[in-house]
Amino acid sequence: MTLQSRTPSFASKPSRRAVVNGMFGVGAAALAAPLLSACGGGPSSDPKTVTFGSNGADATPKKAYAGLTGAFTKDSGLKVKTNTVDHDTFQTSISNYLQGTPDDVFTWFAGYRMQFFAKKGLAHPVDDVWDKIGSGFSDAAKQLSKGEDGKYYFVPLYNYPWAVFYRKSLFKARGYEIPRTWAQFTALAKQMKKDGLSPIAAGYGGGDSWTVLGAFDYLNLRTNGYDFHMSLMRGDVSWTDRRATAVFDHWRELTPYYQQGAGGRSWQDAAQSLFDKKSGMAVIGLFLGQQITDEALRDDIDFFPFPEIDPAYGQDTVEAPTDGFMLSRKPKNLDGSNRFLEFLGSAKAENLYMGVDPSNVAAHSGADTSSYNALQKKSAALISSAKHLTQFGDRDSDPGFISTVVLPGLTEWLGHPDDGAALLKKIESQRSRFFTA
Prior knowledge:
alpha/beta, six-stranded mixed β-sheet, 12 strands, globular, disordered N terminus
C-alpha cells in the first residue's frame, strides 16, 4: 500500500463541496464514475454472488483483499466479484457511484466520512451484522461505526495511531524521561534544544501540509476534549471560541522547538532526521515505519501518547484513522452481503489481511497479534485502551474546508506564530461556506 492510500493527499483530491455537487449532478467526475459503477448489480443479479467495490488498487492491499474474498468464498460458497479502482479515483467518484448502481459492499472510512453518506440515505444500516460481530470491538470502534441516527453503517478492518515517536537509544544516552504532561513535554523540548538537537522533527512542505493536522488535533483534544474537538471539526462551533484560541496559545509555546525549515521539507525528510538522531521527537503516524528497512533501527523506534494538557481530558483520545467497509443503500444480494460483512468483521479476516499488510493494526480485539512487531503491538494496545478515537483532518471534517481554508492558514501561521486571533477570525469567516444547518 502506498502512503497516498493511507494518508490525506489534499493536493490531489477535490473538496467535499465538489463531491457533494457531484452527487446532485454538478461537477461530476465523468470519466471516473463509470469505472467505479461498472460492477454494480442489476435486477437479475446472481444470488450466489456478492459484488465488492475496492479502493485497494496498490499491490499490497489488492493481494490482501484477494485473500479475504477467496477465504470467504471457501467458507460460504458465495462468489465475490471485485471491482478495484485506484484510491484517488474512488474518492472523486464515490458520490456518483453510490447514487447509481453501486456494488453491494464497498471500502470506505469510519467517522464523519461514513456518516455523511449514511445521512444522505446512500448506505444501508448493518445493525444485524453488528449483533454478531459487536463483541469483538471496543466501545471507541463502535462509536466510529455509527451514523448520526445511532445505527451502524460501518465495519472496521484496520487502523494506525498518531503519537510522539522517538529513538530509544537517544533517550537512554541523554537520560531523557518520557513526558506525560505538557510541562514535562515542553521542558524536554527545551533540554533537547540545549543539547544541540532539533527537538521536534517537522516537514510540511508542498503536498505534505496535511501533517500539521496531527499536532493541531492533539492540541485541541488535550486542551478542550473530544466533544469540543468534534464540534469544531463538524462546523458546529465558532473558530473564534476562546477554547480554540487556547489551542494556539499552547501551540505557540511549542513552535520554538520545531525543526528549522519545516515548511520546505517533506515528512519523509523529517522522519529521516529522527532516524539520524538529529531530531529528538516527531508527532507523526505509524506509517513512518514504511521508511525503515533496517530491522535494528525499527527495534530502536518507540512512541508515547501525546502529553496531557488538561487533567480533565488526560490522554483519553487517540488519533487513529480507521478503514473498513460499508453496505450500499440497495444491495442486490442483501443476505450474501451481510454474510460477507460478518466475515470481514471477524478476527480471522483481519488476521488474513495483516498477514499480507503489516503496516497497520487490526481493529478487532480478538485478532492474533503474535506476529506483530513491537510498534504494532504497542499501537494495538494504545488504540484499544482509548476512550475515544478520532480520525484525521478531513476525515473528521469537510475536506474542502480543511484543504482550502484551515491548512493554508495553519501553515502560514506556523511561519510566524502569533496569538492566532487573526487566523481564527479568517477561518471562522469561511465556515458557513462549507457547513449549513
